[in-house]
Amino acid sequence: MTVADLVNKLTQLEQTLVQPSPLELFTPNWPGASDVTIYIKRDDKIHPVISGNKWRKLKHFIREFVDQSGLSRAEGSLPAEGSASAEGSLPTEDSVRLISFGGGFSNHLHALGYVCYQLAIPLTVVIRGNYSSSPTPMINDLIAWNANIEYVDKATYKLRDTSEYLDTLKRRYPNATIVPEGGSQLQALAGVSDLVTEIDNEIGTNYHTIITPVASGATMAGIVSAVEKHQHVVGIGVLKGQDYLESLVAKFLSKNNHNWHIEHEYHCGGYAKAPAYLTEFCHQFKSATGIAIEPVYSGKVFFALKKMLGQGAFVKGSTLVVVHTGGLQGSRS
């Protein structure tokens, strides 16, 4: 496949995306909600598969990879369209490819897998835990999209960012490009900052607070880097990790970014934990609003919003924007 072919495929894919994503007024019948104005940034509507912040974090990286095609610096090549490797048999380990990491319900891997399938880019995914005997719906999609799947135990997965582990991967796949877990890398910040520009273009800059889930840190960092000094960004930690989550965000920011903080009271037991009360909240929310949320990310954000409104956590008369980061893999079974 030529670089021109790849660029054309990416252009066709981007034409299926809804950008800018909708910004919708939200008026729930919750205690304290009438004291503020609330909008939802519906990134879940960007695409039915490449949902939400996953595309924002990937788009500049993918564009750069496609523009360079990974070929100018590598001896390997992408499979020709219609070739055996493009149609399903695994490319060789010397092939140009992407490698990334995630769990069995990873929204990031799901989005990346679809993009790579559409662009005929070989993909290897390293998944925490062995789902070979009972693959999740997300993993079944990756299989259908011809991804090469490697299951590793939790101890091995913890090594994913170490130079020793990455060197081992690079020796096995010499022409591979590594995409960090969650797509969290410097290119991600530029994509996420576009979200703030879209909000500003629609309602101006007189809003006060943006609320977003936090897991790998890049989405919140991208928002913080783009807002104005009078605005504040509230992260809802979706996993246990006070100080740890702050460090993930801070590593992408300059030292003078102080207009943000993370709430740690709404992880509901930890990452991907879905107690009955949270699952019920997600069901009731969709029934009342028509907006699908799931218990891993978006459900915890709106659960936190309801609690914080009831506590009077926001200044009366202020305007809030809640980011629906999409990704509904956590609700699939």
What would you say this structure looks like, in words?
This protein is of the alpha/beta class and 333 residues long. The chain has 2 domains: 3-48 and 187-331, Rossmann fold (3-Layer(aba) Sandwich), CATH 3.40.50; 55-183, Rossmann fold (3-Layer(aba) Sandwich), CATH 3.40.50. It contains 12 helices and 10 strands. It has helices at 3-14, 53-68, 84-87, 107-119, 137-144, 154-157, 163-172, 186-203, 218-226, 244-250, 276-289, 298-310; strands at residues 23-26, 37-42, 97-102, 123-128, 148-152, 176-178, 209-214, 232-237, 260-263, 319-324. It has a 6-stranded mixed beta sheet. It has a 4-stranded parallel beta sheet with strand order 5-4-3-6, with helices on both faces. α10 links the parallel β8 (232-237) and β9. α1 packs antiparallel against α2 and α2 packs across α8 (186-203). The longest helix has 18 residues, at 186-203.
